[in-house]
Amino acid sequence: MQRSLDKGGSGTPVDSGFRVSCLPGKPVLVFILVFCCLFLPVWSPAADTTEAEYAAQRENMVARQIEDRGISDSGVLRAMRAVKRHEFVPESLRGGAYADHPLPIGEGQTISQPYIVALMTEAIRPKPHMKVLEIGTGSGYQAAVLAELCKSVYSIEIVESLGRRAAKLLSGRYRNVHVRIGDGYQGWREEAPFDAILVTCAPTKVPRPLEEQLREGGRMVIPVGESRVQELVVLTKRNGRLERQEIIPVRFVPMVDAKGRKY
Ligand code: SAH
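Above: inputs. Below: predicted complex with S-adenosyl-L-homocysteine.
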């Protein structure tokens, strides 16, 4: 409101026309201006409207990008509707928070495309009793989606600044998410075994410690491959062995060690 009044004062052609034909006499005008300055900012629905717009974009994202592409788990759809993705992307990129692609989150890393988050979440068949390990916290968005669906989420991020920012964001919203800064290749031994493991950076081979930390009957979803394009696979542990099912080709950032070398 304040801004539009200021604009009018600067005298664009449209405003000048308005002034000539419609504006009342001086005392009344002063009263209206004072009234607007004092009260309208309080009534202004701008902040609510923005949240409502994000909610509408989120609804559209779930319908078009996720349901239409075959994700049907009602819990996953609910979680994707619930988590405010725009809160996990840098402020300058929030306009594109619900678009159909990944977005940069700093340090050369990205928040995954919404469909991939939903696909990976559905692949572990999330249930309320589950204890889940995530490798590659990044923005914290995937951890938030998991936190909506599972009992506890343990998430490891190797880039300290990202890990700290995500931990702060998540601790204000969820009590069941634990973030650690470290090398996720090693898993989180003290908390193992996990009912499911979700890996959001790509190693060339499935890390042995993660295999070991998966509970019997548990599922791991992980992008694996040597090149820039990897295969997203689901591994199910049966009788101590991993059954492998390939889902789709994907492009994730590589899993790296503390020195930045690719695994
Ligand atoms: N799940 C994230 C997206 C992650 S992008 C989200 O929802 O936003 C992949 C992340 O994996 C990056 O943040 C990268 O720093 C991290 N990463 C790469 N190698 C890792 C490792 N060895 N251990 C833990 N995190 C790692």
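The longest strand covers residues 214-224.
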